[in-house]
Each structure stands twice: as structure tokens, then as C-alpha cells.
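R.M. (postdoc): so does anyone remember the format we settled on? I'll just put the C-alpha cells first.
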């Protein structure tokens, strides 16, 4: 009787143990799926790096997580844009060179053994390679103070799994960034062509893009939102390609007939961008930068938040540049003067929050 009770209790604990282990596995698996979902939408490298290190810290219960990228040209590792480490140097360098996991219980002993004069404090460091086609493209490292727990085999397994998910995300991000770079260069070339046609406003599209970015940053746009805004701003006047030079470059004011023709740069800009599936999504700037906040602008007469935010930003940047840049017939005014002018029309022509974002962004 006693024996059978003891057996039952033992069996119970074994089953409970197995169940708990399986449950933990499921939880970890669910976490990996969540990681995948959270990072797959983050396509710029800085956004991806931030998300990766945050998730890894949480999943691995540690305070520090470093993500190093391999620079194949210089044979170095880099992280946080500026810090560079020679291939083979230190734990991260060793992992990058060998493409294998390194689990170090006490980093100060590791440094001593490897004759590295290091200021390393005593901490546990787990480092895994992020591999793509058997090549180490990056290195993921987590650190716990030695006072805490050293990393177990299970931790190793989890970090290796995380690194596999990351490998795909990093490759996607690199492909995306390359495509984006090509798009950026084409857009810059196009913006240059627009600016060259308009002899009075040399470099206008480029400057409108720079000013728009000041506003976007102030409004806490993400990296990818800023990228889109920059392209939209550079292309806002693309439709001027279809405006006759004699109207575009006319000295003095336009007749009402000429002004009607000038207005068509909105519709032709929209048409030019709509011919490309991808640029179509970036047509808001070209389509709505002459709308006014009170609904009295052209071509649609949209008002308030019905005007896409990017177009409201470009409208402010456009006017700011017109006031501050030199023209053959007038000298550019100061930034402070331009802000005062914009403020006079804040709420009527311009979105007040955009005007004040520019003012703050310029430190005025
Ligand atoms: C422009 O788009 O730069 C000129 C058109 C206007 O002033 O309405
Ligand atoms: Fe315009």
C-alpha cells in the first residue's frame, strides 16, 4: 500500500516534470513566433537592431545584449555604428571567426587565458554566430553579471534559435535597404532634373526634403516613415516637368491663365507617379502640397487632417524654403523671419502643429 502510494507520487512528479518542460518549450516556441512577427515588419537596420536587442534581453533575462555586424570589407565587427572590433579579437571576434557558439562562465578568466589585457569584469557571456549560407554575418551576445546565473545548455539552444530567426530578418532588411538605396538614387536624380528645369529655385526639392525631415524627426517619425517623407518631398514638384519653361521661369507674376496651367503640376505629378506601382504610394506629397489647412487650397480643396500629414509637412517646408532661399530678384530671408511668416498663416494655410514642430526643430 505504502509502496504503491510512493510509486504514484513519483509517477505524478515525473509526469508533472515532463508536462512543465513541454509547456516551457511551447512558451519558448510561442515567443520565437512573436519575435518573428515583431521583427519582420522592421526593415531598416537601426530599427531592427533595437528591436532584436530588446527582445533578446527580455527572453534571456539579462541586462545586456550586443549585436555585432561583420564588415567583410575591413574584416571587422561593428556595433552601434561607430565601435569596431578586429576579427578574431575578444569573444565576439572569436565567434565571428569560428562560426561557433561560445559560452563563457567568467569573462575575466577567459581574458586572462587568452592573454587579452581587458578591463573585463567578472560576468557570464554567451555569444552565438548569426549564420547565412554558412557565413557569419553577425554575432549576438548576451551578458549576465556573475552574481546571477551562468548560461545553461537550454539558454544556448534558445539563443541559437533566436539567431536563426534573426538571420532571415537581417537578410531581408539588407535586401530591402539595397532596393531602397536604388530608389533613393533614382529619386534624387529625378529631383535634380526638376530643379534644373526651374532656373529660379535651384536645389529647391532637395532643400524641401531636408526641411521636411527636420519636421518629421520633431514629430517622432520612425526611420522608415522618414525615408518615405524624404522621397515624397523630393518629388513634390515632379509635375513641373510638364509646365512650359516660359511659365515656370517667367519673371514677375503669372496671368490667371498661366496660373491655371501652373496648378496642373499637381495633376501631372500625380499621373507621373501613378504610372509606377511603388511610387504611387509616395504620391501624396505631389498630389496635396498645395492644399490649405482651412480647405481653400488646390486641387481638391481638402481641409485639416483630411490632407495627408506628409503633404501638410511638405507644404510648410515648401514655403519655408521659398522665403529663405535666394532668388535672382530677392535675397533669402532669415529662418526666424520665415517662421514668423508661417505663424501668421498657421491654422489657415498651415497645420499649426507642423509649423511649431519646424520652429522647435530649428531651435527657435
Ligand atoms: C509651386 O508649386 O512652386 C508654384 C505653384 C504655386 O505657387 O501655387
Ligand atoms: Fe508645387
Amino acid at each position: 500500500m505504502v509502496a504503491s502510494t510512493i510509486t504514484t507520487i513519483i509517477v505524478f512528479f515525473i509526469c508533472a516534470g515532463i508536462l512543465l518542460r513541454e509547456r516551457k518549450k511551447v512558451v519558448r516556441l510561442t515567443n520565437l513566433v512573436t519575435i518573428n512577427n515583431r521583427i519582420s515588419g522592421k526593415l531598416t537596420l537601426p530599427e531592427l537592431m533595437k528591436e532584436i536587442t530588446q527582445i533578446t534581453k527580455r527572453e534571456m533575462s539579462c541586462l545586456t545584449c550586443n549585436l555585432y555586424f561583420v564588415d567583410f570589407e575591413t574584416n571587422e565587427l561593428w556595433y552601434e555604428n561607430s565601435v569596431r572590433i578586429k576579427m578574431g579579437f575578444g569573444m565576439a571576434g572569436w565567434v565571428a571567426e569560428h562560426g561557433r557558439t561560445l559560452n563563457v562562465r567568467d569573462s575575466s578568466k577567459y581574458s586572462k587565458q587568452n592573454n587579452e589585457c581587458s578591463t573585463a569584469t567578472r560576468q557570464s557571456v554567451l555569444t552565438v554566430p548569426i549564420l547565412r549560407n554558412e557565413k557569419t554575418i553577425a554575432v549576438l551576445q548576451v551578458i549576465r553579471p556573475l552574481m546571477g546565473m551562468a548560461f545553461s545548455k537550454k539558454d544556448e539552444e534558445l539563443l541559437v534559435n533566436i539567431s536563426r530567426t534573426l538571420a532571415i530578418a537581417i537578410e531581408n532588411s539588407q535586401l530591402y535597404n539595397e532596393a531602397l538605396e536604388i530608389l533613393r538614387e533614382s529619386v534624387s536624380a529625378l529631383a535634380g532634373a526638376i530643379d534644373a528645369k526651374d532656373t529660379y529655385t535651384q536645389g529647391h526639392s532637395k532643400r524641401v526634403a531636408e526641411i521636411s525631415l527636420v519636421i518629421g524627426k520633431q514629430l517622432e517619425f520612425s526611420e522608415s516613415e522618414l525615408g518615405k517623407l524624404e522621397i515624397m518631398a523630393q518629388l513634390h514638384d515632379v509635375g513641373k516637368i510638364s509646365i512650359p519653361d516660359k511659365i515656370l521661369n517667367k519673371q514677375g507674376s503669372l496671368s490667371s491663365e498661366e496660373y491655371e496651367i501652373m496648378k496642373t503640376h499637381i495633376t501631372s505629378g500625380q499621373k507621373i507617379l501613378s504610372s509606377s506601382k511603388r511610387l504611387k504610394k509616395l504620391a501624396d506629397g505631389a498630389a496635396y502640397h498645395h492644399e490649405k489647412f482651412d480647405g481653400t487650397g488646390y486641387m481638391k480643396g481638402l481641409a485639416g487632417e483630411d490632407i495627408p500629414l506628409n503633404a501638410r509637412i511638405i507644404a510648410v517646408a515648401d514655403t519655408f524654403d521659398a522665403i529663405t532661399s535666394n532668388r535672382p530678384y530677392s535675397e533669402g530671408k532669415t529662418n526666424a523671419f520665415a517662421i514668423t511668416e508661417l505663424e501668421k498663416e498657421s491654422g489657415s494655410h498651415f497645420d499649426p502643429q507642423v509649423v511649431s514642430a519646424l520652429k522647435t526643430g530649428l531651435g527657435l
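R.M.: ...and that's the designed sequence above, right after the C-alpha cells. Also worth knowing: The two ends are 86 Å apart (CA to CA). The beta strands are 64-71, 76-79, 83-86, 102-104, 123-132, 135-145.
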